[in-house]
Amino acid sequence: MNCVFCKIVNGELPSLKVYEDKSTMVFMDIAKDVDGHMVAIPKKHVKSILDCDEATLQQLMSAVKKVSCHCVEKCGYDGVNLLNASDESAGQSVPHFHIHIIPRKKDDGLDTWPKFDGAKHKIEEIHKKLCAL
User: Fold this and answer.
1) CB 101 within 8 A of CB 35
2) What is d(CA 9, CA 110) in angstroms, rounded to the nearest whole number?
3) Strand pairing partners for 82?
4) Phi, psi dihedral angles at 35 (to 5 degrees)
């Protein structure tokens, strides 16, 4: 498989691991965009949350919570941002399910919330579509 995250899991590419268990791994993001930026992945190849089985999702979220709590309880951060893009249409750049963990400090000046142009449809119309589970 030609997946960069699978290559990290298999030891074919180096990484700076922060946390690892039998089913998940958290490592430093090499983007060098924000101090402390980490990526949490399932070791099992899954493209996105859209095709992730419940057990894998539960294991990944457990690791995300563990690392996030460690950031706040032991590393001097005040909170975290969790970011995910599922599918290329949403901006997913690596086709392996991953969640970015960005440790935050009060008044750190980061703006990680996207800027939206405004809704184009009535909220009631969208609500009706979304409630049709």
Assistant:
1) no
2) 30
3) 101
4) -60, 130
Assess contact for 63 and 19: CB atoms under 8 A: yes
Is the pLDDT reported for residue 132 higher than 80?
A: no
DSSP-derived secondary structure letter, 42:
E
Closest CA to 59 of 78, 72, 40: 40
Q: Say which of 98, 100, 121, 127 is annotated catalytic.
A: 98
Instruction: Find tokens 């609500």 and name the residue.
Output: 127
Instruction: Identify the pLDDT of residue 113.
Output: 87
Residue carrying the six token digits 């142009």 = 117
At 39, is the secondary structure helix, strand, or coil?
strand
Confidence of residue 70 (pLDDT cuts 50, 70, 90): very high
Is 98 part of the annotated catalytic residue set? yes
Give the Cα-Cα-Cα angle 50, 48, 6 (nearest 5 degrees): 150
What does DSSP assign to residue 45? -
